Amino acid sequence: MALTVVPLWFVKNRGMALGILSSGISIGGLVMPQVMEPLNTHLGAGWCYRIMSLVCFVVGLISCLLFQDKRPSKGNQKDESTDTKLFFKEMFDFSIVRNWRFLLWVFTDTLLEAGYNVPYFFLPSYATFLGLSSSQGATILSTSYGMNAVGRLISGVVADYVGHVNIVIVYIIISGISCLLLWVYANTFGTLMAFAMVFGFFGGAFITLTPTITLLVTGQEKFETGMALFLVLTVVSMFGPNLASAIESSSSFAKEYDSYKYFTGICYLAGASLLLFFKLSLNPKPFAKI
What we know:
This protein is an all-alpha fold.
């Protein structure tokens, strides 16, 4: 929700603002594995999830109380009934789905998010599969989230200077290559940590800059409706780990977990190709700031 509001409040340093906001999500990921591992060990899975749910509820409630929207100015409204009609007209305005760039961006993000979730689901179990301890697996995951926070912040700052779409393309290409060149050959604590750091730093930039790219397609007037539809249409990306698991179960790879590595790498590189096409459709100059 917060990601949909920030672009309306910031113009000049929009990328930086989104980077600061988005990095907070990753800081939570940095802390939670270190908290959940001892809770799960001493109190069991049930109480571990109850405690974490309570923490999330309290923090989320505070965030909602501080939440403030900022809608584009629409001039003077005549009466309350007019306001209500405008509200429902905006809420159910599906004309944005006729924009092919919007649909292309939705499909691209779905691919990227499907791939993004896979390492964070399976890195701890892969570490255990390699013979590492559960605490080492938690450390690898936390390190990746820590690098994710730094990478998101830097991507937001740099995007204001070189273009939001441009920086996302660079970040996701590096992320895809890291899966195919680092994760595929990671079989020790050190090599797995190296992959976690590289993927963590570069892998989440597209999430940080999703609102600004969506705003680029929808425009200010239709941004809130477009962002809401975007979130609904991309929800299928949560099944990325399930799809990767199904592929792993039915695949004939010589090594276990290889399908997860290739799945993530292919999702990212395919997403980079689609986003490059998206960029060139907006401006055919390859080095244009977009």
